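Quick one: structure for this chain?
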Amino acid sequence: MSIDAPKNIGTKFTSRRKFLKGAVGIGLLSASATNVKAASSKIVNQGKIKAKNCIFLVVDGMGRGTLSLANDYALCCTGRPLNWINLLENKKVRTSLQNTASASSLVTDSAAAGSAWASGQRIRNGQINISMEGESLEPFFLKAKALGKAIGLVSTARITHATPASFVASVANRDDEDIIAHQYLEHEIDLLMGGGARHFIRPGCSLLEDFKRKGYSCFRTKSSMLKNVKASKILGLFGDTHLPYALDRKHSKQYFQVPKLEEMFQFALSNLSRNKSGFCLQLEAARVDHAGHAKDMASIVEEQLEFDRCIPIAVDFVDKNPDTLLIITTDHGTGGCQLNGIGNRYEGVYKTMDRINKIKASYEFLAEKLHQIKNPEKQLFSSLLGIGLSEKDLKVIKSMMDQTYSIFPFGYREKTSQGYEGYRHDYLAANLGSYFERYFYEQTGVAWTSDAHTSELVDLIAYGACSGSIPQYMQNYELNGLLRNALEI
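Got it. Here's what it folds into:
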């Protein structure tokens, strides 16, 4: 089957408008194990007991369309809704809508959004806990550490990436990840788990040895992680950059030593909860955002499901430790993912979940394979995506690999004497996502508004100690004061 060129379904704005200082907000989340509904019927105090611990679960880049698609997938494939949905059906949890605008745009990036939570101020996109006046701000996790609480950061991205960094670091440029890694050591963050080894292990840098000299147990594999359960300080680095997509870890044996997000979460809870003064733990399902940027529907669903498996773990911990405040949210939407009606009376969507289920790899994994074999092969696309390509398709994909780019309505332009005309992606995975966008829309009804962040309002669930203080609508930066009050910091 020949893949036709997808059309640009995004909207381009040519003007800006000033916006009021008080605009914009919070995140949304997913869910998916079995006993959340039953366990949450035992929900404990919503405001009488102060919080000793804080668990902050972030699914980066999840809009409500992504939540809905993942829930439809869970219902069709398992017969059960997401745990996120089960929590919403429990009337005792507190829910809120958040406005997510940053100091520089109605559309936030992760650095500004995470910093708003951490510092209580709106921050410019691209900066982490730097005020509008250029001053470094102290994130509330560091304030908690000063009171003796253990601090942990867990992510499927580089652990130095914007969201985990925003809870403890302060830099004028979010891309200064080497500096962020040094700040982690300086502040002696108790537990760090995720990707990003390249910012700790690089030529001429002794940072990893510095961590070891300060008493950290450092490891790179799942097996080593399981051997360090009782270690007091943890640095787990399971990839040079971001961890592989959950979809690729599911179908490729080469990633068997990369722990699942829920495994890292259970490890972190066991480790940090030994601290008598309590703990603050931030966990991020980072690659929902990345899949949204790449318009990768199978990956975004699998990432959402992996995050979802963390929810019952958190709920169970709160039920057993009622002095714990649990926050479940997202920082912004990415991609505008939606399941749209297709076919006669929209009945075509019944084939959608089966079609998603047949995809065995992310566009990122496919791009890596293409770089290895140098030329696109029909069999590769057939086995991993279930797509039959024409010679024309192969020619366009080869032009992506060569960075010459065939003429194409969206995402690709032929190089001219004046350079590249129009928009072009910087990485092959996103190019593949745009190329197959229209094909998968026709097959499944799943479509995207863009490959960028969105300004949509996002959801938040609060559970446990002081959860009753969460308002039904707030600016994202207002959460900071509520958390500090709950933790008395």
